[in-house]
Amino acid sequence: IGAIDPASGAQRSVVQGRFAAPGGLAFTRRDGRATLLVADAMGWREVDAVTGTVTMQPFDLLANGSSTIAVTARHVVLGYVRRASVTVLDRASGQVQRAFKGFQQPMGVVALEDGTIFVVDYASGELVQLSATGDERRVVATGLAGPVGLALDAQGRLLVSEATAGRLLRIDPASGAREVLASRLSQPEGI
Questions:
Q1: Which terminus of the chain has fewer Cβ atoms in its 10 Å neighbourhood, N or C?
Q2: 46 in Cβ contact with 69 (< 8 Å)
Q3: Strand order in the sheet with 22-30
Q4: pLDDT tens, the chain, 191 aa long
Q5: How many other CB atoms are there within 10 angstroms of residue 111's CB atom?
Q6: Which helix (H) or strand (E) segment is 64 a member of?
Q7: CA trace torsion 99, 103, 104, 107 (10° rounding)
Q8: Are 144 and 120 a contacting pair, CB within 8 Å?
Q9: Is 30 helix (H, G, I), strand (E, B) or coil?
Q10: 36: nearest Cα among 59, 9, 5, 70
């Protein structure tokens, strides 16, 4: 994993190796330090963004193998394409709080502080909202062309990269209205 200084373009290695099949990334703070969370097929990891120290979370393939990751003050949310599920862990204890099935290939997740989760499913072409209580599932958008990346903008709208269409979309989570922000991209993934 490398870091790029946006002002100078200088690059440095943060950590080399120590991953099986790394996927999504999420930034947070732990004990006041910048921390990078890395989704990985063999369990998610925390990386100290300054020292590069890698901490692997206790391994449980059913609970923490992952290909995408999101974080809130209380939760770590993992999506895993091989298990076709989304799992919510308590951030402090690492214990499973909820698990959502019924996805085909969950490729991107966004977690809100209120417990709401958004998921893009590559195979179904859907953007799905999961309620904070876990008992409601709402399809926000359909017909997406290979959605992979998912992020939240400053106005609370969702940014979705469509790998097979080569586009970056902005989608209103309440109405599902979408706007093309960029097109003719070459298989965009992360945002």
A1: C
A2: no
A3: 22-30, 33-40, 45-48, 54-56
A4: 777 888 999 998 877 777 888 888 899 988 888 898 998 888 888 888 888 888 887 666 566 678 899 999 999 999 988 888 899 999 888 888 998 989 999 999 999 999 999 999 999 999 999 988 777 899 999 999 999 999 999 999 999 999 999 999 999 999 999 999 999 999 888 88
A5: 23
A6: helix 61-64
A7: -80
A8: yes
A9: strand
A10: 70
According to DSSP, residue 191 is labeled: -
Q: What is the DSSP string of 114-126?
A: TS-EEEEETTTTE
| Sole residue written with tokens 């990985």 | 40
One-letter amino acid of 99: A
Spatial contact of 149 and 182, defined as CB atoms under 8 Å apart: no
Backbone angles phi, psi at 61, to 5 degrees: -55, -35
**Cα separation, 107 vs 101, whole angstroms:** 14
